[in-house]
Amino acid sequence: MIPLALRVLGWLRSNPLAALCLILALWAGVERHSAHKWHDRAEQCRTASQAAAEAQKALRDAETRQSKEKAVEVDKSHTVDLAAVRDATAAYIASHRVRSPRISAPVAIDQASGPGLPAPVPAAVVVVEADVRTCADLYAYSTAAHNWAVTVGQ
Question: What rounded mean pLDDT belongs to the chain?
């Protein structure tokens, strides 16, 4: 085997063009092997990238589904709470309604404030029913929004 290698080396020394062709052929073989290796690596990267994208999509879909479930749950809770607040508001309005007194006797005159002036009416805060109902609804809405916000990070 060694004498054959020596003959080939002698022949390559005498034919530089043949030596160049042999070197190029060896280099092409190495490059082809390298190209296959890089192609395999690129294929592995593409496969891994697709798997990661699918995993991210599955996670995003799960989060969206969970978020929708929480939203439905909070909305149901808000509906129940709103009904309870409206019932409590109606009861409050009924029990604290300002009733105008029936005047059956002539209006009392306050002698200290002068003749012909009615006696002072005790101070009271009077709020329109619609405003009380609006405040109660906004309270129920803000409570539901707070409860939802608490669940966002969980």
Answer: 79
The helix or strand, by DSSP H or E, that contains position 98, with its residue range, turns out to be none
Token pair recorded at residue 64: 């969206």
DSSP one-letter string for 35-67: HHHHHHHHHHHHHHHHHHHHHHHHHHHHHHHHH
Judged against a pLDDT cut of 70, whether residue 27 lies above it is answered with: yes
The residue ranges of every structural domain in the chain are 69-96+127-154
Burial readout 57-83 (b: 16 or more C-beta within 10 A, e: otherwise):
eeeeeeeeeeeeeeeeebeeebeebbe
- What's the confidence (pLDDT) of residue 83? 93
Query: Which residue has 């082809």 as its token pair?
Result: 32
For the stretch 29-43, pLDDT in tens is: 777 777 777 888 888
Report how far apart, in Å, the C-alpha atoms of 94 and of each of 53, 81, 89, 128, 140 are.
60, 20, 8, 13, 20
